[in-house]
Amino acid sequence: MVLPSVAGLDVRPFSRVFRALSDETRLRIVALLAHGELCVCHIENALALPQPSVSRALGILKSAGVVDSRRDGSWVHYRLVDQDTPELQVVIESVGKAFGSQRVMRSDLVRLKKSCGPGACE
Questions:
Q1: CB atoms within 10 A of CB 111
Q2: In this structure, which long-range contacts are made by residues 104-107, counting pairs with CB atoms below 8 Å and at least 24 apart in sequence?
Q3: Residue ranges of the domains in the chain?
Q4: How confident is the prediction along the chain (122 residues), in pLDDT tens digits per residue?
Q5: Which fold has domain 16-113?
Q6: How far, in Å, CA of 109 to CA of 83, rounded?
Q7: Who's near 2: CB < 8 A, 6+ residues apart?
Q8: Structural contact between residues 96 and 17, judged by C-beta atoms closer than 8 angstroms
Q9: How many C-beta atoms lie closer than 10 Å to residue 88's C-beta?
Q10: CB atoms within 10 A of CB 44
């Protein structure tokens, strides 16, 4: 089966990313990660959400190829993945810029700054 394309452009990666971004929590995570790599505990604190909710959202974003993770001891750090398609890269970057100015995102950033610092992940 051949999936539809637009002028030779494979729409599957776009569909996967847009589905992953179709949730407020996941959008908030992407906006936070636009500022750089974060430990999962910082994401939880910034969003004021329980660990299972954040982990589920991060799993969806990781499956869609939006984020990647690395383990550092018992902590997991997440970062945005550079997209293979320039158009998708623009979409991901735009989320961070556009949503960063929203009130809820500004509140997330304030909580993030309070939760980060020496010994914050201990």
A1: 16
A2: 104/28, 105/28, 105/31
A3: 16-113
A4: 444 445 566 888 899 999 999 999 999 999 999 989 999 999 999 999 999 999 999 999 999 999 999 999 988 999 999 998 899 999 998 887 777 667 777 787 788 887 775 555 65
A5: Arc Repressor Mutant, subunit A (1.10.10)
A6: 24
A7: none
A8: no
A9: 19
A10: 19
